[in-house]
Amino acid sequence: MPLTKPEKVAEAVRDSVSYAGVLRRLGLPATGYYYAVLKTYIARHRLDTSHFRGKGWRKGTGALGDRTP
Q1: Buried b / exposed e across 37-55, counting CB within 10 Å, b at 16+?
Q2: Which of 30, 53, 60, 66 is most buried, judged by most C-beta within 10 A?
Q3: Which domain of life is it from (predicted)?
């Protein structure tokens, strides 16, 4: 990650449940560029992301989101 120590990235990955959470902990913007850089970094350094929950933006919504029939 640009201008970030590897130990801080590993700690942020360990303590987060999403890619966005990692970026927030590192003080980086949640943009497509940084998502791509982060995912490449995680893969290259074989950091464990099995605890990531994924799809956090939909947490608590039903299959149709907040729509009512």
Answers
A1: ebeebbeeeebebeebeee
A2: 30
A3: Bacteria
